[in-house]
């Protein structure tokens, strides 16, 4: 199912490409319905984490009501809160570190909302990881295996790494049935990864996809203007009978024309589906 990353249907207040839309998050349910979408991927940020509607009882009630009113599902959440404050080490710049208890709370709140996928970004902005720090992360994720199982919650790692590292991670995840992968098309293209080889490495642990385009070793750009080979990727997804969600996380364009932008991105994607 095609969906959109939260925040992309309204103007950015800070100028950032990705942020939680504090003033407008309720409007996005109506806007998503208006452009013909059925799915929004929620986003949690480190700043004001405890105030996010995903976390508060009153906010959760509003999410459920809006989901029903506008026929919009929320099945996944991007855990951007763990970019600036990872659970397995301090962030090298912010010096912040989250607790596994924060992750446990997210899983419990997700269960209340019917959210079944948590996308955990292992990206450049979170600071560099080596194999030892990643093993520490996997130990922490293993410690919540039973909770994830009972909550029907899976963790999808968004890996901004080359294929050699992804292959190693895939091997480590063989013992973690509740942990898999999110394929970020733009990040992969920017790194110069062979997308078909990357999808093969993910195998049946591919749980979610972010649709994005980037320049080679560069920034996010509108779909079709970067180096991502969408024709090849979508053909591969058809071949493996990929049945999970595809989330638009593409570049913002003209402010105050967000619905037009997303509408154009939907047309772009449907050319390949």
Précis, in short:
With 273 residues, the protein is α/β, with parallel strands linked by helices. Helices cover 39% and strands 18% of the residues. It has one domain: Alpha-Beta Barrel (TIM Barrel).
Describe, in plain words, how this protein is organized in 3D:
The structure is a single chain. The termini are close together. The chain has one domain (2-270): Divalent-metal-dependent TIM barrel enzymes (TIM Barrel). Helix content is 39%, strand content 18%. Helix 7 (163-172) runs parallel beside helix 9. It is α/β, with parallel strands linked by helices. It is globular. Strand 1, helix 1 (27-34) and strand 2 form a beta-alpha-beta unit. It has helices at 27-34, 57-70, 81-84, 100-113, 131-142, 145-151, 163-172, 185-191, 195-202, 230-239, 258-270; strands at 2-5, 39-44, 73-79, 117-122, 154-159, 179-184, 206-211, 213-214, 220-221, 245-248. It contains 11 helices and 10 strands. Strands 1-2-3-4-5-6-7-10 form an 8-stranded parallel beta barrel, surrounded by 4 helices. It has a two-stranded antiparallel sheet with strand order 8-9.
Distinct helical segment count: 11
**What is the total number of structural domains?**
1
Counted beta strands: 10
Biggest β-sheet: strands ordered side by side in the sheet = 1-2-3-4-5-6-7-10
What is the CATH homology-level superfamily?
Divalent-metal-dependent TIM barrel enzymes
The SSE string, one letter per element, is EHEHEHHEHHEHEHHEEEHEH
């Amino acid at each position: 199912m095609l969906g959109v990353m939260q925040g992309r249907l309204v103007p950015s207040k800070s100028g950032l490409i990705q942020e939680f839309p504090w003033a407008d998050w309720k409007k996005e349910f109506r806007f998503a319905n208006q452009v013909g979408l059925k799915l929004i991927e929620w986003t949690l940020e480190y700043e004001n984490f405890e105030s996010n509607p995903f976390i508060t009882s009153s906010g959760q009630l509003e999410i459920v009501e809006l989901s029903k009113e506008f026929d919009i599902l929320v099945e996944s959440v991007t855990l951007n809160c763990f970019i600036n404050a990872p659970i397995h080490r301090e962030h090298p710049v912010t010096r912040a570190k989250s607790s596994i208890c924060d992750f446990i709370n997210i899983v419990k709140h997700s269960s209340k909302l019917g959210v079944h996928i948590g996308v955990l970004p292992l990206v450049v902005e979170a600071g560099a990881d080596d194999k030892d720090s990643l093993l520490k992360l996997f130990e922490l994720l293993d410690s919540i295996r039973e909770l994830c199982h009972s909550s029907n919650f899976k963790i999808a790692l968004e890996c901004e790494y080359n294929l050699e590292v992804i292959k190693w991670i895939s091997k480590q995840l063989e013992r973690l049935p509740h942990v898999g992968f999110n394929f970020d098309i733009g990040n992969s293209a920017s790194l110069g990864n062979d997308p078909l080889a990357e999808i093969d490495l993910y195998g049946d642990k591919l749980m979610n996809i972010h649709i994005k385009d980037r320049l080679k070793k560069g920034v996010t750009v509108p779909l079709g203007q970067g180096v991502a080979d969408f024709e090849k990727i979508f053909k591969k997804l058809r071949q493996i009978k990929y049945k999970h969600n595809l989330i638009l996380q593409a570049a913002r364009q003209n402010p105050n024309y967000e619905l037009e932008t997303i509408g154009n991105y939907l047309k772009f994607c449907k050319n390949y589906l």
